Amino acid sequence: MNMHEKFRMERIEGIAEQGKDEEARRLSQAWISHPGLHQYSYNFSWMGRPIIQYPQDIVAMQELIFTVQPDLIIETGIAHGGSLILYASLLELNAMCGGQQNFSVLGIDIDIRAHNREAIEAHPIFQRGHITMLEGSSIDADMVAKVHKFAAPYKRIMVLLDSNHTHEHVFSELTAYAPLVSVDSYCVVFDTVIENMAADAYPDRPWGKGNNPMTAAGAYLASHPEYVCDEMMDSKLLISVAPKGFLKRIA
Ligand SMILES: C[S@@+](CC[C@H](N)C(=O)[O-])C[C@H]1O[C@@H](n2cnc3c(N)ncnc32)[C@H](O)[C@@H]1O
Question: Which CATH architecture has domain 3-249?
Answer without folding.
Answer: 3-Layer(aba) Sandwich (3.40)
